[in-house]
Design brief:
single chain; five-stranded antiparallel β-sheet; 5 strands; 42% helix
């Protein structure tokens, strides 16, 4: 396996009016049932346990980003039509963080020892000729060397499934955006 994953660009054709709106709406609306292998891979990650709703136990027919934000991730920033950024905290500080008064400012300021701050985005960029590109990136900041080592072990284990889910998520966004573009132009 080669780490990190190669960059993948996915384009969705659209009219000038709909150049960003349907794509961004698709990013916000895609549910786990639209993402190929999502349930299988997250079932493996959960070791088959059900548990409460979360990003790895997302209910069908609900936007996956809404589930993530409702169950542990924080909406860090949103530029409607262009970009959405969510974040979470892992490690011993994670449960405390989840119960605290979370805010983007608190996320930036968190430097508790043994924590890993994870930020993930979806960004829409013009690609010319009425097309756009959907990009996604995940960044991790470990607050200490032991936190970095612990997260590295975790990431090596979940990375293959996580990378596959992200690619399938982008394809689901593309399918939804293209379907919405066609319905608008008809």
């Amino acid at each position: 396996m080669i780490l990190p994953a190669r960059e993948t660009h996915i384009s969705a054709a659209a009219s000038r009016l709909d150049e960003f709106a349907p794509v961004y709406a698709a990013i916000r609306a895609v549910g786990p049932d639209e993402i190929a292998l999502f349930h299988t891979l997250t079932w493996i990650r959960r070791f088959g346990r059900r548990g409460p709703d979360s990003i790895i136990n997302a209910p069908n027919r609900q936007p996956i980003l809404d589930t993530a934000i409702r169950t542990g991730f924080l909406l860090l920033a949103e530029d409607p039509g262009r970009e959405i950024v969510v974040g979470a905290v892992m490690g011993p500080a994670g449960p405390e963080w989840a119960r605290s008064k979370r805010s983007p400012e608190a996320f930036k300021a968190l430097h508790t020892r043994y924590a890993a701050k994870i930020a993930m985005n979806f960004r829409v960029e013009p690609a010319g000729a009425g097309e756009c590109r959907i990009l996604t990136e995940t960044r991790v900041y470990a607050t200490s060397p032991p936190a970095a080592r612990a997260f590295a072990v975790y990431w090596r284990i979940i990375y293959p499934g996580s990378a596959l889910i992200r690619r399938m998520w982008l394809r689901a966004i593309q399918r939804r955006a293209e379907a919405e573009s066609k319905s608008v132009t008809l």
